[in-house]
Amino acid sequence: MQIVVLDGYTLNPGDLSWDELRAFGPCRIYDRTPPPDVISRAADAEIVLTNKVVLGNEQFQQLPRLRYVGVLATGYNIVDVEAARQRNIVVTNVPTYGTRSVAQMVLAHLLNLTQHVAHHGRTVAEGRWSHSADFCYWDHPLVELADLTIGIVGFGRIGRATAELAAAFGMSVLAYDSVEPADVPATVTMVELDELFRRSDVVSLHCPLTPDTERLVDRRRLSLMKSSAFLINTSRGPLIDEPALAEALDSGRIAGAGLDVLSVEPPPADHPLLSAKDCVVTPHIAWATKAARARLLGTVVANIRAFLDARPQNVVT
């Protein structure tokens, strides 16, 4: 059973082991695969693993031995699932691995926006504290989280984990989900989406990207937010109308944004949010703690084992 990993570097840049994957049989692992090389590299493979390399009908037509595509992530929009189904190619993903890591990144961005940790640490390293006339200084208002309200858009696993962390800081929690959850913790109040934007001091996005959620945060919803409010996105970049957000930040319409995702990754150098006022952008790393990546790789191996045992799991539809 020939296995090919098309772009394994971000999952495992060297601090994890591929041994369990290699135990299945011949295995070729590429750090990255440019589109022109996909067919030549996967030509003899029955199993192909991909993170961001696109596999569609055009590729499937040229890979007659392919039986299984494993996505090294939760999102699987890079695979044409319908075309795979027509060719009896099983497609799986990894639905749960980074819940706590992503929730942790939400709080990391929030704490940075409210305490300006990175900024003040940088000014100390530049020597400013050593030459200060006072024993302390701060350049921005420092905000306490207790008694603030966080609004969570999308109340799935990550949204719930974020709610738990926020509640531990003494925050009130509002949440919205397109499907009313069956069990809502006593610390969470479910509200309509516009009400959430109006009432929240922090809005954190945790919903999938669908036609209904694309640009969910547009000029109108940004106009509903408090001028002191923060927006955090660790979900999908296209949930936000990015030019509208840049405008809202630069004009002071909202107080700041913490973003781990953008609509184009890597972003162009002139992306408006890279230079927007009070906007902190991290390079899509909320998922990438070693613990989360180890869980992801373990599930990838379990998915392949289940497929080979004729009981496939985590099959996407």
Characterization of this structure:
The protein is α/β, with parallel strands linked by helices. It is built from eleven helices and twelve strands. The protein has helices at about 20, 40, 55-60, 80-85, 100-115, 115-125, 155-170, 195-200, 220-225, 240-250, 290-310; strands spanning about 5, 25-30, 45-50, 70, 90, 150-155, 170-175, 190, 200-205, 230-235, 255-260, 280. The protein has a seven-stranded parallel beta sheet with strand order 8-7-6-9-10-11-12, sandwiched between helices. The protein is globular and about 65 Å long. The two termini are about 25 Å apart.
Concise structural overview:
With 317 residues, the protein is α/β, with parallel strands linked by helices. It has helices at residues 19-22, 38-42, 57-61, 81-86, 99-115, 117-125, 157-168, 193-199, 219-224, 242-250, 290-308, and strands at 3-5, 27-29, 47-50, 68-71, 90-92, 149-153, 172-176, 188-190, 202-205, 230-233, 256-259, 279-281. 31% of the residues lie in helices and 14% in strands.
